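INFO batch 0412 | record 1 of 1 | parsing
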Amino acid sequence: MQKEGVRIGFGTDYATPALHGYNLQELDTLIDYGLTRREAWQSATKSAADILGSGNELGQIAEGFIADAVVFKVDPYEAHNANVLRNSIVSVYTGAEEANLI
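INFO prediction complete | emitting tokens
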């Protein structure tokens, strides 16, 4: 579908804290269906923000942007799957928390 010009945005329907973090499995699914690891990550960041009409303030870590960031013990582009990523989370930072620190 991406070759046909369809924009792909990572998303989740998880609405409960008990399932937080399991949406990483969507990365595996996108890769299984043909996206490169880089394209899958972009679908969760810049592409998703663009699709939502917020690409001028979300979707990347840059000056003036609101960003959430996850720090992993492994390189996310080299992690074998979502389980490896989930088990290697060191810290999670959200733009909202950052704003409260200032």
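INFO post-check: Helices lie at 25-32, 37-44, 46-51, 82-87, 95-101.
INFO record closed
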